[in-house]
Sequence to fold (88 residues):
Amino acid sequence: MSLETKQVQEIKEETQNENNQQEEQKTVWTTKKKILVALMILLIVVLLVLICLEIAYIADFYKYKDTGVDGRLWTVLQRQRGLFGEAA
Fold:
């Protein structure tokens, strides 16, 4: 082989190696992106559940506020002394 064909072949190998590295980086980025999206969805779902529970506790508190009846979530003592029984 002549010197030119060896150089051309080396250049082809280098570009092939660069392309392979770029492909690997793309797969790593797509994997990280998928994990990030899944975590964000999970975080949003957890926050929505917490907001719903908070609304339910507030609604239960106000519905049974001045009655001697236990609510669905709060007992009479919890409404008077707080959720953990501490004097307010």
